[in-house]
Amino acid sequence: MKRNIKIATAVTAGALAIGGVLAVGPVIADPGSGGPMAAQTTSQSMLTDAQHQARHHGGPTDGIRQHDGTCGGAAPAEQGTLTAAQKATLAGMAEEEKLAHDLYTAFADRYDVRVFERISAAETQHLTAVRTLLDRYDVTDPTAGKPAGEFTDPAVQATYDRLLKQGEDSLTAALKAGRTVETDDIAALNKALSVLTAQDTRQVYTNLLAASERHLTAFEHWIAAE
């Protein structure tokens, strides 16, 4: 039975507090419940994506690894200064992460594959990390109080509606919608990082970028397997 994974506003399992900012911590789905849990033992964490997948349900890789975006052990990042444009970008990142979470949760309820449920759990952590930065830099959270599938930015709302409709056609269409989300996130994060100096924000964005790249690879693998 599928179950929705609610977006957490507090520290979620696997999120690491680094210098007051939540780094995007490891998320490994529990093979029994399908839910997130904290990092597992060293021997388990050394498994490759393919090994995890073969052990748990014999399908393509999910792109959820022991070091999925974590800074594990990195020195605390210092707070910097964000321009008005960079604060607007930060707010946009929150909506992007919520879009990914809500979309993947909807697909997890529709299709009997764990890739969406597992990655949506990671997106919960990502949004928590971005929300921590929003609070630190006194930026209004555009996702606060918004139910699943609802967004402040009309452009984000239109994108969500389009991708949700696309994914209702078939599992392959849903996987391709996920690929689109991750591709767009990677482009947005690379653009943001190119002009960013605040070390705490750079740390979180870099972690999000690494996670999105792994998620994109996961969707590509699943698409190829269809």
Task: Give the topology.
Elements: E1 16-18, E2 21-23, E3 28-29, E4 36-37, H1 42-45, H2 49-56, H3 84-110, H4 115-136, H5 154-167, H6 171-193, H7 199-225
Antiparallel strand pairs: 1-2, 3-4
Helix pairs in contact: 3-4, 3-5, 3-6, 4-7, 5-6, 6-7
Strand order of the largest sheet: 1-2
Largest sheet: 2 strands, antiparallel
Number of strands: 4
Order of helices and strands: EEEEHHHHHHH
Outline type: globular
The helicity comes to: 55-70%
Measured by DSSP, the beta-strand proportion falls in under 5%
**Overall pLDDT confidence:** 76
Q: In angstroms, what is the radius of gyration?
A: 16 Å
Structural class: mainly alpha
Low-confidence stretches: 1-59, 64-75
> How far apart lie the N and C ends?
22 Å
Total of helices = 7
Task: Tell me about this structure.
- By secondary structure, the protein is mainly alpha-helical.
- It has seven helices and four strands.
- The chain starts with 15 loop residues before the first strand and ends with a helix.
Quick recap of the structure?
With 226 residues, the chain is mainly α. The chain has helices at residues 42-45, 49-56, 84-110, 115-136, 154-167, 171-193, 199-225, and strands spanning 16-18, 21-23, 28-29, 36-37.
